[in-house]
Automatic annotation (TrEMBL):
Listed GO MF terms: phenylacetyl-CoA 1,2-epoxidase activity
InterPro entries in UniProt: Aromatic_CoA_ox/epox, Ferritin-like, Ferritin-like_SF, PaaA, PaaA_PaaC
GO CC term (a single one): cytosol
Name of the protein described by the UniProt record: Phenylacetate-CoA oxygenase, PaaG subunit
Gene Ontology terms describing biological process: phenylacetate catabolic process
UniProt lineage: Bacteria, Bacillati, Actinomycetota, Actinomycetes, Micrococcales
Pfam annotation, one family: PaaA_PaaC
Gene3D superfamilies, per database record: 1.20.1260.10
SUPFAM superfamilies (alphabetical): Ferritin-like
Organism this protein belongs to: Arthrobacter rhombi
Superkingdom of the source species: Bacteria
Length: 316
């Protein structure tokens, strides 16, 4: 049973959502809303941070100075995305060190795509085009998420993601216009990243029990399958510009439903990768643990400095 105050607070919350307005950190919100958002935003932050690894592996092997500086800027952007998102998650009441602990202990999830290896330079192209491309399709509607700090973080993130997607596409363009083996390398990268990038939208709607509630709360605006078919339609056109193909004989536009159809995806593999059995899960988490450990002195120094500043401010 709710007290009269809680009832009034719930009514206010419902009105804000119905009005397409925004909930801010100090506003009352149902516990389920707070929990769902904390989970979603922190998983998103973890994905940005873990997602730096497959590409960071290629910084030292980039084929030119120009490519190296572009890739460094891109990987650094992803670190920035992680930081905005951890800050947004913290406004819901869970401190950053708790969120980090959930990641490095293996308790928290992050996007399954980052547990696949980046095998060739062309993978930098396929990741930018497909992985950042899928992220954009997912995230543009999140710019209107009902929780203010999340929506605002997404606006900035999306601007940078579109640069990421274009740099990936441009890498593939250049390879596709190169020698036969370069073209083959680009095709091979697309073949490997196609299915995992489609799975980034999450399980099929029938198998995604929380979606309905997050849509009612106007955190999400479209279902997983809706976003997935939108993405597949977008890349089906773009791949023609590359003169390459998508590894999907069932890909077509259904005039009747107005939707793009694609092949069945391997959801057993998706579940296994999420559960920790992907080709790189152990390596990715170990790298994050090591980095966290190596950075301990920075956190300690920052905490001591903050304390000192606080004391000086109190004396003054
Ligand atoms: Fe990002
Ligand atoms: Fe990105």
């Amino acid at each position: 049973m709710l007290t009269p105050e809680e009832e009034a607070a719930q009514e206010h919350f419902d009105a804000v959502i119905a009005d397409d307005s925004r909930i801010e950190p100090r506003d009352w919100m149902p516990e389920g809303y707070r929990k769902t958002l904390t989970r979603q935003i922190s998983q998103h932050a973890h994905s940005e941070i873990i997602g730096m690894q497959p590409e960071a592996n290629w910084i030292t092997r980039a084929p030119s100075l120009k490519r190296k500086s572009i890739l460094m800027a891109k990987v650094q952007d992803e670190a920035g995305h992680g930081l905005y998102l951890y800050s947004a998650a913290e406004t819901l009441g869970t401190p950053r060190d708790v969120l980090t602990e959930q990641l490095i202990s293996g308790k928290a999830k992050y996007s399954s795509i980052f547990n696949y290896p980046a095998r060739s330079w062309a993978d930098m192209g396929a990741i930018g085009w497909l992985v950042d491309g899928a992220a954009i399709v997912n995230q543009v509607p999140l710019c209107r998420a009902s929780y203010g700090p999340y929506g605002r973080a997404m606006v900035r993130v999306c601007k940078e993601e579109s640069f990421h997607q274009r740099q990936g596409f441009e890498i593939l363009m250049e390879l596709a216009a190169g020698t036969d083996s370069q073209k083959q390398m680009a095709q091979d990268a697309i073949n490997r990243f196609y299915e995992p990038s489609l799975m980034m939208f999450g399980p099929p709607d029938g198998d995604s029990p929380n979606s309905q509630q997050t849509m009612k709360w106007k955190i999400k605006r479209f279902t997983n399958d809706d976003l997935r078919q939108r993405f597949v339609g977008m890349i089906a056109e773009q791949v023609k510009v590359l003169g390459l193909t998508l590894p999907d004989p069932e890909l077509c536009f259904d005039e009747e439903t107005g939707k793009w159809m694609h092949k069945d995806l391997n959801w057993a593999e998706f579940k296994a990768v999420i559960a920790g059995a992907g080709p790189c899960n152990a390596q990715r988490l170990q790298r994050r643990r090591d980095a966290h450990h190596e950075g301990a002195w920075v956190r300690e120094a920052a905490a001591v400095y903050a304390e000192k500043m606080q004391q000086e401010a109190e004396v003054a």
